[in-house]
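Possible regression after last week's pipeline update?

I re-ran a chain I had predicted before the update to compare outputs. Posting the input and the new output here so someone can diff against the archived version. Not blocking, just want to make sure nothing changed silently.
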Amino acid sequence: MIFLKKVLAIIGPTAVGKTALSIEIAKQYQGEVISGDSMQVYRGLDIGTAKIMPVERQGVPHYLIDIREIDERYSVADFVAESRQLIDQITARGGLPIIVGGTGFYLKALLYDMNLGGDQYEATESVRKKWHAYAATNGQQALWDHLNQIDPDAAEKIPVSNERRIVRALEVYEQTGQLFSKQQTTLTPRYDALVIGLNTDRARLYQRIEQRVDQMVDEGLETEARQLYDAGGQSLAAGKGIGYRELFPYFDGQITREMAIDKIKQDTRHYAKRQLTWFRHQIPVQWFDLLADPTAKDQIEDAMTDWLSK
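New output (post-update):
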């Protein structure tokens, strides 16, 4: 009988308590945290990514934070390779690996033995540049429309704003002749994983999102975004993140500051909704509401005890 390593994942939209819960569980179960957020890897992008600062970690080791410069590429294949190594090391120390945060496809690719599509076919630089240039000239909607004509099943699952993922799907088709949506669909679990999802009712969630954005602005989000903009953020993968890309038109004088902040709130709300929909269809998750359900902590404790005893 093969025993899979245990991995805990804590997922959910922004502002629902993932960070606080991860620290609490890590301290109780000798846990070490691996960030599952594709934007927190970039140095200098602290406020807009809600990055947990060293002083907030309470001695809990954290990994895959501040490991790339803003002009460096970071792919799902990078995340999976580095996370697998960390999981082996944490497990060997007798610790509990805890994946925290947000990028759903990254988590799925880690927890299951997936065919990573475009990442396993090393696209020539010219192919990748061609599609990014197409988006720059014609817009991301046109790029998505092109994918939708070729592979509507893939396009349905990829947001128009996710240029990198659209380009990856087009790369796979161009280089292999295979549709991105027809990549491996039967998934074999790589770990014995418990996925805890945090959520709350929509009105409360949206209110907390707006408060979180206002807090980020107060903490200096505009300055952080300006530094990214001045470094060529509009052409960088790091510049595609919510909280940054919405401010670039303001810096260009196309919209007001208030309009940019409102757009950040709107995009964050939409992203939270897409996240929840994605997780409900892609990965088995046990959902809890720490904000409204006084029994949620006990329920999570019970789920942890049951899982760890098997």
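Follow-up from reviewer: compared with the archived run. The chain has a mean pLDDT of 90. Marking as no regression found.
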